[in-house]
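Cross-check.
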Amino acid sequence: MAFFLKEQSLQQLSRSNRQQQLELEQVQLRKKHSQFVIAGLFIIVILLFILLYSRYRQYITWQEQEAAISDSYTQVSLKNVALRANDEFKNKLITIIANDFRAPLYYISEVAMKLRNQEAGQPAMAALIREIASVSGSTLCVFDNILMWIRMQLSGFAYQGTHCQLSDIFRQVLKQTAAAVKEKILVVVNLLPEGAVVMADPEMLRIAQLHLLRLSIQYAQPGSLLILSAWNNEGVAYIRIIADTGPATEEILQQLACWQYDMYALSYAITRDFMEKMKGAVLATTSEGRYLVFTAVLEGVKTQTDNSCG
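Predicted model, tokenized:
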């Protein structure tokens, strides 16, 4: 019995060992399974990270491509603007030559024809020659303005503003337009304050104001007033020319907007170019339905003698 009991206990112990062995194997299997699951999740996380990083790189690449495309579009647009500006410049230049140089050539050809045919007497020929001299002088003045305008349009031109006395500028301008003022019997009212100074290119400012004054004289009613004034407001200088142009002021403003078809409008367009190059502006407006007002805007300089004018 003792041997039987011992054998039975040994059998039970053997079964218990096998059971424990099975349980250990199951635990190890579960542990291996868990390790596989963890390793799989880790690999999935790494793959997701790689995918997200690649998508991020693609996004950055797309952004760079869009920026490059946008820059290329901007460059193309700037080139188109430059080409249009060059076309406009050439059109203006052709219009200037076609209009300003036609008059003296016409008078010269007239004199040549009459000299060849001996149709005109000495007084008539003298009058024609004086007319040629007058028109040619005006044409040479315009040609000088054209040369400065061409130089301003070139890429190498650099504007450098200096202190300009408005009284000196308008003294020259009024001297150049004295004959036209006298012919139209205009009364010039000079309200420019003493010591008025602006930042500009002296020659460019003189030509711009000369053009504006000639336009004012051209459109002014005979025997009317021509008013010159200037003032300073918060470091900005305003120069104004007012002419009594009668009831056709609105039509004049419309004409000034079409430089392709009108010589005086072309002169105004060139003046705008000059003012823009000097970091300023010029504006043509109407007042009370009969006054043409040209207002030029530039950087002002305060003086000790008069702080109300730039």
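Confidence is low (pLDDT under 50) at residues 303-310. Residues 178 and 186 are 10 Å apart (CA to CA). Passed to J.P. for a second look.
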